[in-house]
């Protein structure tokens, strides 16, 4: 990847991230999805069913944030990722978010499995790496928002919007049980860094 992802155009940066995530096992096969804001009202997101280790800049669709409508696609047969509604909800909730990254971390699923059924949060270990989310307290008590998985992804998006409108999350990340984490940031580089930090935290939690 380039020294700074924000030096690249949004789709070029997402291609670089996808190849990196795939190499780390976070986007096996066609799993996972990535997006980056194009402007105030639109974002680019990975097309559904694409092998994430072999994406190019034509494998993205331009989606309108308020209603999720596809505005542009480079290949007529391409469809937006199933999680597009989640990305749109996060961009609506957090206007300063410039990128949203969703992958699949084995240790994340293992750690989330330890939470009681119906639990709304997953307590993260109070270790140094939390500083990557700008959390600077000594021995902080930080909860990763946890959502139950369902094939109705739009329902998950509605649950995220409902909860986060009521209570702002303590960090720019969430976890869907038996599925995977989603991380967003004020820049592509910040979102990438924070996904990497969250992976460390979840691996630590899974091994405790």
Write up this protein.
The structure is a single chain. The chain has 208 residues and is an alpha+beta fold. The chain has one domain: L-fuculose-1-phosphate Aldolase (3-Layer(aba) Sandwich), CATH 3.40.225. Helix content is 32%, strand content 21%. The chain contains 5 helices and 9 strands; from the N terminus they run αββββαβαββαββα. It has helices at residues 10-24, 84-93, 106-113, 153-166, 188-207; strands at residues 33-39, 42-46, 60-64, 70-73, 99-102, 121-123, 143-147, 173-176, 180-185. Strands 4-3-2-1-5-9-8-7-6 form a 9-stranded mixed β-sheet, sandwiched between helices. A hairpin with a 2-residue loop joins β1 and β2 (42-46). α2 packs parallel to α4 (153-166) and α3 (106-113) packs across α5 (188-207). The termini are far apart.
Q: What is the tally of beta strands?
A: 9
Number of helices: 5
Q: Let me know the CATH homologous superfamily.
A: Class II aldolase/adducin N-terminal domain
- Portion in strands: 15-25%
Indicate the radius of gyration in whole angstroms: 16 Å
- Give me the side-by-side strand order of the main sheet: 4-3-2-1-5-9-8-7-6
What would CATH call the architecture? 3-Layer(aba) Sandwich
Number of domains: 1
Labels describing this entry:
single chain, 208 residues, alpha+beta, L-fuculose-1-phosphate Aldolase, nine-stranded mixed beta sheet, 9 strands, 21% strand, globular
Topology, element by element:
Blueprint: H1 10-24, E1 33-39, E2 42-46, E3 60-64, E4 70-73, H2 84-93, E5 99-102, H3 106-113, E6 121-123, E7 143-147, H4 153-166, E8 173-176, E9 180-185, H5 188-207
Parallel strand pairs: 7-8
Antiparallel strand pairs: 1-2, 1-5, 2-3, 3-4, 5-9, 6-7, 8-9
